[in-house]
């Protein structure tokens, strides 16, 4: 495996330092993914509140500006996801995928999809981290790849945050006067944001689940050990899903 540190002479502790840098970059990409999800949810919920006068208090709470809290959220998530190992992240992803499947099956009993979006934030970060660990394993110049991914994820998160700030500040005015292209677009198709998030999360967790199974199976020396691990785990989670239904 080649990384940014492979160009430098082997010094004591240097390899550990580059591994820490890779972990932080991977955690930053995952935290930016969570930030994008939160910003788009904020946009959707604010639009729904504008169209419902009874939710005026909720609208004001969503529009309240907390710039330091948002930055702190990203920093804390970056640190936590950098410290969480790929195998722990894999277990978190698989556990949430089963809970999500159970929630979708029981949606007719009063479970709302918006609750699932709120609950999946940490699991989404683990899923992105798990997927990056699997996809970039053995990749040439892994550190450069992660730097590029972190830059793109940061730009996407920044634009999503600016969109949320614009909507919370000017959407109500612009949607009435109809002279802002962004607000007119949201007025016409803002109801499709949950579908967009649902499709993006489905793809992300599908890749993360495959990566998680592969990462966990590497710990087993034989097929028998893997079967002894997965069989009781599958039975327990199946019974849990059945019980929740």
UniProtKB/TrEMBL annotation:
InterPro entries: TMEM82. The keyword Membrane applies. Keywords: Membrane, Transmembrane, Transmembrane helix. Pfam families: TMEM82 (PF15816). The chain crosses the membrane at residues 23-47, 68-94, 114-136, 143-160. PANTHER family: TRANSMEMBRANE PROTEIN 82 (PTHR35257:SF1). This is TMM82 protein. It comes from Prunella fulvescens (Brown accentor).
